[in-house]
């Protein structure tokens, strides 16, 4: 115990590590200058989204259905309104034919196909921070073999030229 307290005293640390006091001073000045800059700047306003559309694609409809239930449950826990959790009626599939052997036997062929299923999710009336939190959580828990496409509909102010009524000029 004596060795530990003797070694950890400030006198011994500064003697063994000569640059520590300089490092601490630079961190303190850096921190204080950053806080001074952050006080002078105006706070950044949070974005507002009317709707966020999430489209997930995969090759197994059961996985997409399960992920849709998971995402609506997660949105419910965050207090987010869910617009739709549906799948379109038609899925896409591509079929292609190749030869069985590389060089001969032209009559012997094999057909392959892969199907792509879709699911659409809509989240309504979100703030930017809530949207980022939700989308990060949903992307981290995305199952294997599933792709996600996100479309955000942001609410913005009208331009001043559009929002003000035109002024009539009277000519005499």
From TrEMBL:
Pfam assignment, any one: Ribosomal_S10
GO terms for cellular component: mitochondrial small ribosomal subunit
Keyword Ribosomal protein carried by entry: yes
Coiled-coil region(s): none
Superkingdom classification of source: Eukaryota
Keyword terms: Mitochondrion, Ribonucleoprotein, Ribosomal protein
Domain named Small ribosomal subunit protein uS10: residues: 53-151
Subcellular locations according to the entry: Mitochondrion
The family this protein is said to belong to: Belongs to the universal ribosomal protein uS10 family.
Protein name: Small ribosomal subunit protein uS10m
Organism expressing this protein natively: Microctonus hyperodae
Source organism phylogeny: Eukaryota, Metazoa, Ecdysozoa, Arthropoda, Hexapoda
